[in-house]
Amino acid sequence: MKAISGKLFYRGEIIEAGIEIEDGRIKKIDKKIEGEKVEGLILPAGIDVHVHFRDFDEREKETIETGSLSALYGGICLVVDQPNTRPVIDNPETYFKRMEIAEKDSYIDYFLNIALTNSNADRIIDYIKEIEEKYRIPAIGEVFLQHDDENMQIGFDAIKTLRDATSKLITVHAEQPELVKGLGHELRPPEAEIKAVENCLKLGNFHFCHISTYDSAMKISDSDSTFEVAPHHFILNYEDYFKPGFMNVNPPLRSKVEAELMFNSLPVADMIASDHAPHTIEDKKHGKPGFPGVETTYPLLVSMMKKGLVSVRRVVDLIAVNPARIFGFEGYGAIEVGNYANLAVFNLKRVRKIKAEKLHTKAEWTPYENFEAIFPERVYLKGELAVDNLELLVEKGSNANPD
């Protein structure tokens, strides 16, 4: 048994207390516990339910190894990888191949969604049953209502059929196909997202990925569906961040006013997820859509928290508690007895500017260059000290096997 002590966020308030850890889980939390003194604010390690770790035929952009290492340094203990890889993960064989890589190469707990494609729509329920004899699939999707690949673009009828056939969480990339004319804010108007969300809500309950408009956020918040927000949709906007090629992301950056409205939607948002979608610098010069962000999401939020822009309770709910609850990750989320001792320790006095050269993704660039952030000085994975003052203390594969 081990114990650490310090300031921690526990049941809605910051207290001075100790945490007893046994077999990777929190055994006891009490002000009388004396353990190794930890300097800084102890928060739960984060969960990022939307990453694209590439690998397979796109290893030059990112791998499970580099993506998970980047996540770890950003205070993230668990990721959900998306299946629109090359090849697409829409069958058991490819799914198992991917998980074998993760078990060997991931530094953190790694979960993987399965894709809904036009090729597997009539077999996906059977595929899920086969896969879940060995692995837990968090969700189906992200399901693309709009995609350049006809096999990946899914119609509303197919989504309705799947919704009626399974209780499993379905995550949706909501953009109305006929309203999308290309890349960028001018060719992917807010109405494309709003209309797609409206149509989906008529079909049932879903989890909506990377919502970028206030109107969509309000419509979803009035329903039984859930949604995530990516940091770039409330921190960046196309007016201030006009960088041809590099500014492309789907859904696109919105106006300055819309970004401010999205920040104001955080009180009703269910979670924040990075939509970590790395590309090489050369790809970005040619306009490939997507931003890296798994390492910077939590540090940006903590910096905003220090400035008083968002409360510590809201940060913890958005990046740990709600993702664990909605995606059914038992033992994750809040700092609580019985949960895994997944912890991120932030020194609020140590603010530094984000530099791409200091990050661990293969992307070699970040849309948040020179933004202020507070990175965790320590990260614990199931009670084991994994990162200590930028020093990596764990080996890949050692924490990649969720129960």
From TrEMBL:
What are the record's GO terms for cellular component?
cytoplasm
User: Which cofactors must be present for this protein to function?
Assistant: Zn(2+)
Q: Could you tell me the keywords of this UniProt record? A: Hydrolase, Metal-binding
GO BP: purine nucleobase catabolic process
Residue span(s) of domain Amidohydrolase-related: 42-362
- Where in the sequence is the signal peptide annotated? none
MF terms from GO for this chain are: allantoinase activity; metal ion binding
> Which protein is depicted?
Dihydroorotase
